[in-house]
Amino acid sequence: MHLTAPATARPGTRTRDADGMAVASFVLGLLGLLVFNIFLGPTAIVLAAVSLWRGTKRRGRAFLGMGLGVADLLVLLAFMQVDNTLSWSF
């Protein structure tokens, strides 16, 4: 009697997860340009790197997510230089 499911994964699950991570990195990077860029920028970079490492079919989205994550951090640094604070406001 087995109480748990077998440990084998369905074929294509890893690629589908990587595709989801690529899209998530793009969305979080885009959202991070507006709010919470100190958290969403690094998260977008990590998700993009992991999705590329897992072999996503959406490489363009992953690279865009990584670029937007870096842009989030650059925007944060620019506003920190202007305001002399860790956060920024309008």
Automatic annotation (TrEMBL):
Keywords: Membrane, Transmembrane, Transmembrane helix. InterPro entries: YqfX-like (IPR055338). The chain crosses the membrane at residues 20-50, 62-82. It comes from the Bacteria. The keyword Membrane applies. This is DUF4190 domain-containing protein. The lineage of its organism: Bacteria, Bacillati, Actinomycetota, Actinomycetes, Kitasatosporales.
